[in-house]
Amino acid sequence: MRSSHGAAALGALALASLAAAAAAHGRVAPADAIINPESERAVSAGPLGVPVPTASPSVIFAPRDTRGLVLPPVPAIAQPGFDATAKVLPSGDLVGTVGPFVGIASADVVAMTLARNTDLSISQSNRRIARYQIVAARGAYDLRFQLQPQYSYADQAALSAFMAGPSGTDVHTIAAGATASIGENTSSGGSIRLQTSATRNENDSTVNSYNDYYSTALGIVGTQPLLRGRATDDTRRQIQLARVNADLTTDNALLTASNAISNALTAYDNLISAWKNVAIQEDALRQAKAQSESNARLVRRGAAAPVDVVESDTQVNVFQDNVYSAIQNVATLQNELKELILADPADAVWSANLVPTTPIDAVPPEPSLDDVILSALSKRPEVAQLREQIRNADVNVAYQQDQTLPQLDLGISATENGFAGVPAPVNQNPFVPILGGEMMAINALIARSNAATPGMPPLMALPNASLGTIAPFQNGKFGGSYKSLFQGRYPQIDATLTLGFPIQNRTAKAQLKVAREQRRQAAINEVALVERVQMEARNAVQAYRSSRSRLIAARAARIAAERVYASEIRKFRAGQSTTFLVLQREIDLANQRGRELQAQTDLQNALVAIDRVSGDILAKNDVTAGALGTTATATTPLSPALDTPVGRGDRARTSDASPGDPASSAAPASSAAPASPAGSAAP
């Protein structure tokens, strides 16, 4: 028992020593802190059981009794406060910007977005690709010329006296010529081809009457499907799909443009709001600083307690933090806007400190929900996209319907052949002497028969013609062969009718069902699009109505807060108020100004959303698909910022102002000096 109590005491002493050593070395307590049951101090089991200190926040007042409270141990790393090493405030300049403010109008933002946005450049490239694909599909109807020269040489062993060369030698055969054709596919699914051939043949076989001889041919060949492939075929289908795809890429480009303009104008409005927020926070900082200086004077006169200066200085630091946060928001929105309007990372505009210069428009009346929906269904690029998808499905249905028909193809060809040759020596043909002797013997028998039967009609003798005699028009070379061809001596006409079909034709039937299902899906998507358009229109109009109502309420609240703040200042100067109440009124005023600014920004964003949802954003900005993303190296139309409020006012006139137009930009540099953040963005 003694040994166990002694060990426990030594263990507790060791834990206390290690805890003290760890605290001296500033060790941090991990999350697995434990409680020493004897001292009820929070310690932590570190490596090898070494305890580390836990958090002990200093408080002004501590409760005498903690019973009934749950106070889990907290590690020392959670100690409130942060001891910053840097005591000097950093610069308030925006990172990456140089020089004075540079003004930019909303019309120029839209123009630069349409001309330089990288997404729009890709969309324009896709439009060109789609046009090339149409040309490629129509290439199936191009005239095709084919030339096929040919040459062959062969030696054949003499098989008999009748199948041998001169003097019983081998038979030598040489053929040289060419075949040419030109033809095209027709728009009715058939084909037509004009073809010709010319061949020179050498064959020294003793039975040939010509060596050399020349054969020519000129003909026309046509095929035409009568059932499957007559109404449509894969070539016509591919052309139709390519045209649909070209229209679809245009719709995609317009949709990208609509989103890009919406994003750019929203970023522009948000940048206006960000600069105005900087002015609001700086004004609140000045008010807090003035109050702190006033409190310091009162303390020096003994009319106020020193804690009033501490209280006001605390609020000064809070507003200073708000100023840095506001500047951070400006930097973020500037970079977001630059990314939307620039296409070159080396563009000098990246270094510009952009300030919007377009004044805010008067608030237009609330649009009718029905008008927004009807406009969207007639102008939105998504609606045009859906139409192209339906066209695509219809093309596939028609093609697959045609594929279920049986094949019935008609083929017709008409050919004129020509022939001429160089007569071979008659005496080399072994048939000539044999046939000549037989003819002489037959004629002798006929003569004897006629002499023996004088009372009967005489028999006609065989004509005494030479077996080596040939027709004169066949004597010649290529010239003679073509002459006989054009004289039409050897015409040839062929006609074929091909019938074929699968017995069950399951592939075509299944593909037709697939195409019809895809068409049904397009119809379902059409209903879904109408619902989505209706939902977006409702939300956009509701957002406009709500933000307009909030703006009215926030403006009244801001005016009231200004009056209350002014009254509180007068009461403080009369000794009837406290520093706490004055600072509270300052905070309330800054908050009400922020609420009004946020409501104004939401209203401007709602206007952009209504233009996008209704499809009017493209027409209002004179957007044409052919000009999107085409001037990525254009000069940026920027000007020094004026010392005037910023906003958006000329969106309805963007179609009349071009990039760089003085009417759509700020005044020249000579007419305005660079403005301060507070001056250029005063609320």
Task: Write up what this structure looks like.
By secondary structure, this protein is of the alpha+beta class. It folds into three domains: 2-78, no CATH class; 108-128 and 239-397 and 512-680, Outer membrane efflux proteins (OEP) (Up-down Bundle); 130-238 and 405-500, no CATH class. The protein has helices at residues 2-24, 106-116, 118-138, 234-300, 306-341, 369-379, 381-403, 431-452, 478-486, 506-573, 579-614, 616-620, 677-680; strands at 33-35, 42-44, 101-104, 144-156, 171-185, 191-203, 210-225, 353-356, 407-423, 490-500, 639-640. The strands form three sheets. Strands 4-5-6-7-9-10 form a six-stranded antiparallel sheet. A hairpin with a 6-residue loop joins strand 1 and strand 2. Helix 4 (234-300) packs antiparallel against helix 5 (306-341), helix 7 runs antiparallel to helix 10 (506-573) and helix 10 (506-573) runs antiparallel to helix 11. The longest helix has 68 residues, at 506-573. Residues 1-50, 52-57 and 642-683 have low confidence and may be disordered.
Summarize the structure.
With 683 residues, this protein is of the alpha+beta class. The protein has helices spanning 2-24, 106-116, 118-138, 234-300, 306-341, 369-379, 381-403, 431-452, 478-486, 506-573, 579-614, 616-620, 677-680, and strands at residues 33-35, 42-44, 101-104, 144-156, 171-185, 191-203, 210-225, 353-356, 407-423, 490-500, 639-640. The chain has three domains: 2-78, no CATH class; 108-128 and 239-397 and 512-680, Outer membrane efflux proteins (OEP) (Up-down Bundle); 130-238 and 405-500, no CATH class.
